[in-house]
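ligand=coenzyme A
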Amino acid sequence: MIEDGPQAVVWAAAVAGAAAEDDWSLLDAEETARAGRFHFAADRDRYVRRRAFLRRLLGTECGLDPRHIGFMRSPQGKLALAPGLDAALHFNQSARAGLTVVAVSRHGPLGVDIEPYRRLDDLEALAATVLTEREQGELAAIDAAERPAAFLRAWTAKEALLKATGDGLMVDPKAIELAIGRDPPHLRRCHVDAAAAWSLLNLDGLPDYAGAVAAQDPGLQIALRRVDARSLGS
Ligand SMILES: CC(C)(COP(=O)(O)OP(=O)(O)OC[C@H]1O[C@@H](n2cnc3c(N)ncnc32)[C@H](O)[C@@H]1OP(=O)(O)O)[C@@H](O)C(=O)NCCC(=O)NCCS
């Protein structure tokens, strides 16, 4: 559960491997149909496991059976609790490879994003598509061995902010400008007014992943909790 204090809790859970009957049984008809549309079994299992995990987590936070959690989705795709449920509870999810993270807060909207650290052979081209010229210049000045990680940290920070505002990739990531290489990320400008009201933090503590949380919470603090995806709300 989220404790008192100005903090977002980020729950991280491994979701690789086969989904169990216990996971499937939590999904509603729409989620079950979406699961059925995945081409590869591994993708389907990951989706079922991460959605079951989200339901268990929100069920625990709301004091409800995970099957009774209802969702709504904004036109831009952001998932939220259905009307009538805990209106003060904000959450956002990200999943990559075998890991999912869910950030929850009672201090306003938030966004979370993760990316596995990896070699990026096409880094310069990639940077040109999502970083401003100033950001690209700052990235190029970083030691070559450190550059992919610096890029992934900046990229997850931008995505976290785009997810916090709910815009997602409908907004050009270049509308956000960060000071590359700073921890916590330093926001120079962004696509929404009152940029100062948004806080950005790197998600440290996931050794193989870059990650970031953005929230409309000037006093943002993050507590990271690693859990078993099936251990909550049972
Ligand atoms: C939102 C977006 C940035 C997510 O990026 P991603 O790195 O591929 O995926 P992640 O695993 O980090 O996040 C996916 C989750 O983010 C959430 N999400 C989706 N759109 C979102 C938005 N606009 N704002 C905040 N969160 C969003 C959802 O919960 C989604 O999981 P779900 O579909 O299972 O519910 C990206 O998918 C996007 O903007 N796409 C373009 C917009 C679009 O296609 N919208 C669909 C309209 S229905």
